[in-house]
Amino acid sequence: MEYNARYQEIAIDIAHSIVMGEYREGEKIHGRSTLAGRYNVSPETIRRSIAILQTMGVVMVSQGVGITVVSKSMAEKFMRGFDQKAEIQVYFDELKKLMEQRRELDQKIDAHLTKIVNYTDRLASRWMDVAEIEVAKGSSAKGKTLSDLKLREKTGLTVVAVVRGGIEQFSPGAEFILDDGDILLAVGSEQGKEKLQEILR
What we know:
Structural class: alpha+beta
Coiled coil: 88-115
Strand content: 5-15%
CATH topology of the largest domain: Arc Repressor Mutant, subunit A
Number of helices: 7
Domain RCK C-terminal: 118-201
Domain HTH gntR-type: 4-72
Transmembrane segments: 50-70
């Protein structure tokens, strides 16, 4: 979508000259060869420029007569139409930029959604590996806090909850005191779970 081709620019310039009175209605314009030299383009380019103006009713081309100005008002109308096309081009370019920005934004959104899905999958998988380890009767862990036992340091496990009397207490603090029959819900490696079982015996 291009509105500023050279032959169009020349057509606009000639129309502008007509509007400004350089060429008057009924007056002949220089021949194509002269115009080609004036604008430093090929005669074919001038032919296309004049064809546009003739189609718009700005000039008339007659065999043996040449190029004659027909209507100043049509020259004004042609220039207004070109300005509107140029304005449409601006909107088109802006729309193209916005669409590119939207594609980039969609790609970023897709990337973030993928990360969230992957994280959720890993988290769900992690919760599926939660171990339930009970504080045995007579365990040395009875009456001690999680901090006293240093479970995190010794096992590498994360105690996400403690079940006591059928009631789950999530995210127990470091000062939570264990009792016989407490069930620790812990997440971590199998080796860590085995160490926890030993501690809670």
